[in-house]
Amino acid sequence: MNSKTKLAIVTGGASGLGLATTKKFTEQGIKTIIIGRDEAKLASTVKQFGELCHYRQYDLSDTSGIPQLVAEIEAEYGIPDILVNNAGINHKKAFAEVTDEEFSKVIQTNLISVFAISREVVKSMLKTGSGSIINISSMAAQYGIPYVIAYSASKTAIEGMTRAMATELSPQGIRVNCIAPGFIATDMSAKALNNDPARMQKVMNRTPMGKLGEPADVAEAVYYLATDSAKYVTGVILQVDGGNSIGF
C-alpha cells in the first residue's frame, strides 16, 4: 500500500487501542483523523504524533451530528480510505441491577454510533469504490462473560453487523473486517480486572500465552486489515487474544 496517500478515521483514537492504532498509522505515513470526547487528550495525541494527526472533538453517542461531522472531514481532508470503529464504553454490573437507561447508553455508544458513522463514511467511500472498515469487538462476543450484559450484547451485534456489511459492501470495493481483542492492558481492562483478583486469575488461566496483550498487538492487526496486504480479506473476525478464545 502506498500509505502516504491514505486517510484514516479512528474513533476513540486518543486512548487505549485507538491511541496505539493512531501511533501505528501515523508512523506508516497515514494521515489520521481521531475522534473523541476529551479535547485535552485529543490535542495531546496530535502534539505527540505530529502533522499527520488531526482531531475532531465529538461525542459519537449523539448520532444526529455524525453526517455533518463526516461531511466536514471529507470537505477538509478528502474521502477516507480507512475507518476504525474503536470508540466504546463498558458497564460492569450484576444483570438484575442493570437499568434500561444503563443498557441503552452502552448500546447507543458501542453499536448505534458505529452504524451511523459507518453509514456516512460508506457514502463517501462509494464515490471511489474502495475502502477498508475495521470494527473492534471483544472476547465478550466470543463467550459469556458475567456482569457486562450490555457490552456483550453490543459487541456480539458488531460481529453480526461486520458480516452483513462485508457481504453487501465488498462487491462495491469496500472491505469490512473485525478484530476481537482478548484481554489487553488498557485503562478499560484495568477497571475490570485490577480490583477483582478472581477475575484476573480466570483470565490468566484460560489464556495459553499466560499474559495480557499490549495495545500495539491490536494496532498491528488493525494495520494489516487496513492495508493492501489484506486486499482479499473481508468479513473476518480476527481474534488477537493470546489464545484466550480457545483456552480451557
Summary keywords:
single chain; 248 residues; alpha/beta; Rossmann fold; seven-stranded parallel sheet; 7 strands; SDR family oxidoreductase
Provide a descriptive summary of the structure in words.
- With 248 residues, the protein is an alpha/beta fold.
- It has a single domain, classed as Rossmann fold, CATH 3.40.50.
- 44% of the residues lie in helices and 15% in strands.
- The protein has 8 helices and 7 strands.
- It has a 7-stranded parallel sheet with strand order 3-2-1-4-5-6-7, with helices on both faces.
- Strand 2, helix 2 and strand 3 form a beta-alpha-beta unit.
- The protein is globular, with a radius of gyration of 17 Å.
- It starts with 6 loop residues before the first strand and ends in an 8-residue tail after the last strand.
- The model has no long low-confidence stretch (mean pLDDT 95).
Topology readout:
Layout lengths: L6 E5 L4 H12 L3 E6 L2 H11 L3 E5 L8 H12 L4 E4 L14 H26 L5 E6 L12 H21 L4 E8 L5 H7 L3 H9 L9 H12 L10 E4 L8
Parallel strand pairs: 1-2, 1-4, 2-3, 4-5, 5-6, 6-7
Helix pairs in contact: 1-8, 3-4, 4-5
Helix amount = 40-55%
The CATH architecture category equals 3-Layer(aba) Sandwich
What is the CATH class?
Alpha Beta
Q: Any idea of the CATH topology? A: Rossmann fold
Structural class: alpha/beta
Termini separation comes to 39 Å
Q: Order of SSEs, N→C?
A: EHEHEHEHEHEHHHE
Organism: Mucilaginibacter rubeus
Protein name: SDR family oxidoreductase
GO molecular function, one term: oxidoreductase activity, acting on the CH-OH group of donors, NAD or NADP as acceptor
Keywords: Oxidoreductase
